[in-house]
Write a structure and sequence with these properties.
The chain is built from 11 helices and 20 strands. By secondary structure, it is an alpha+beta fold. The strands form 5 sheets. Strands 3-2-1-4-8-5-9 form a 7-stranded mixed beta sheet, sandwiched between helices. This is VWA domain-containing protein.
Length: about 450
């Protein structure tokens, strides 16, 4: 966010684990002898996650339509290379193609009642969709002076933060301080800007990272370490920040930002609990059966109780839990992310997660209940629980590795990295409510009768 002649300092930048022991094959003696102990076991699991009460139930209430979407496009000097004036051959940049389509999608969507568009200079200036789209396509005619991110965020939170409203900020999010002494305070400045209007308990931000070819003058963030240069032989990053109440951000993301090629990071967004079920005829092993009440009389697509007849190192029990993650952002559906961050938590057994796989053409085409699930988690145990015990599948909410990969402390040489990106997102993360887990799926293990 820099203007060619400006050297001013600026920053551009769980599930409520109410583990009710599900109905199943409990004996009267188990209920009597283990009732108090089972409660203690559940409390032990809960104590590991102080924020469990904030997560949403499996069946979320019907969402209300978004009231408004505000799109703010930065047009300072450092953005000219993304939106160069139309060349003689009619060529354009990836930024121009993607953002023009995005603006069109927002303008036409039925997911929001009202849409407003702004040119972001030293402050937001209202603009029509047509004129903003023309700026993206034809290039920036008069680049603005430097845009200070803390001031922009303060304005958004003060004037535009409303229930049912999202604000989409499109920018390169470059931080250009006057001196290196300001660098350690990037996180603090972002946090203060987002909280200056008072803490918002439901504040959420989704960050989407893209890269584009760049045809213009490149300005390094730290003026002392590099000189502006005609650029580039490499793609340069830019970002969408979607800011608003959690429900509104989640709805907007699902309706208009489903491109799985985008890099993603989500802060403070709460998602409904995915549909899930134990599958008894899919890669299972050992002696166990459904312990749910009336299991033999209903479709096998929502079972939560595993009754174990026998288990040992020589004869382990293995069962698969089907997960329907189609309504989660792409970040949380990536197999590598799930394999690293999906965990099992339990007591009085040695149950552990042995693998996570994605649906295949074979599972999708199956006549069995596995056809409705996008992913599968396999659990193995060799110890029968003494009585009914909770088991929880948790997806930890971790920042994706791409953020560190796209962060640099010195951007003198143009590259697909952004100066101090991690610090910007640190400040953002400190501004929202902690969401240590994406979802928590309660199950029950119990001995067979």
């Amino acid at each position: 966010m820099r203007y060619p002649t400006s050297l001013s300092s600026r920053l551009l930048p769980a599930l409520g684990l109410a583990l009710l022991l599900l109905p199943g094959c409990y004996s009267r003696s188990d209920m009597k002898e283990e009732g108090g102990k089972a409660g203690t076991m559940t409390d032990a699991i809960l104590s590991d996650n102080p924020n469990t009460s904030s997560a949403t139930p499996e069946m979320a209430a019907t969402d209300q339509p978004l009231q408004r979407v505000n799109v703010l496009l930065e047009v300072s000097g450092s953005m000219e290379g993304f939106m160069p004036k139309t060349a003689a051959d009619g060529g354009n940049t990836q930024f121009q193609q993607r953002v023009a389509q995005f603006l069109s999608d927002v303008n036409r969507t039925a997911a929001a009642k009202q849409k407003s568009f702004f040119l972001l200079k030293e402050k937001p200036y209202a603009e029509s969709y047509g004129n903003l789209s023309t700026t993206v396509r034809a290039g920036i005619r008069q680049p603005a002076k430097s845009t200070e991110l803390p001031a922009v965020l303060d304005t958004l939170m003060t004037r535009y933060y409303q229930p049912g409203t999202v604000n989409v900020l499109i920018s390169d999010f470059i931080y250009s301080p006057k001196n290196a002494g300001a660098i350690p305070y990037i996180k603090t400045d972002i946090t203060d800007a987002l909280q200056r209007n008072g803490a918002q308990a439901d504040l959420a931000v989704s960050v989407y990272g893209f890269t584009s070819d760049f045809r213009g003058t490149y300005y390094p963030a730290l003026v002392a370490t590099g000189k502006k240069t005609n650029c580039c032989d490499t793609d340069i990053p830019y970002y969408y920040w979607v800011i608003g109440p959690s429900d509104a951000v989640r709805q907007f993301d699902a309706a208009l930002l489903t491109d799985e090629t985008a890099r993603q990071a989500h802060f403070g967004v709460v998602y409904p609990r995915p549909v899930y079920s134990v599958l008894d005829k899919f890669e299972n092993k050992g002696s166990w059966y459904y312990g749910d009440a009336g299991a033999s009389k209903r479709a096998a697509d929502s079972y939560r109780v595993v009754a174990v007849s026998e288990a040992s190192a020589q004869q382990p029990v293995e069962f698969v839990v089907g997960l329907d993650l189609q309504n989660l952002p792409a970040q949380y559906r990536e197999l590598a992310y799930l394999q690293q961050n999906l965990q099992v938590q339990t007591v009085d057994t040695d149950a552990k997660l042995t693998g996570v796989t994605a649906a295949t053409a074979q599972t999708k085409g199956s006549s069995g209940p596995q056809s409705r699930f996008t992913h599968f988690a396999k659990i193995r145990l060799t110890k029968v629980p003494p009585a009914s015990r909770p088991l929880v599948l948790k997806l930890q909410n971790q920042r994706s590795a791409w953020v560190a990969q796209w962060t640099t402390k010195n951007d003198a040489v143009p590259a697909a990295k952004t100066f101090a990106l991690s610090s910007l997102l640190d400040g953002l993360q400190a501004s929202v409510g902690a969401r240590p887990t994406v979802f928590e799926l309660p199950l029950t293990l119990q001995p067979a009768r």
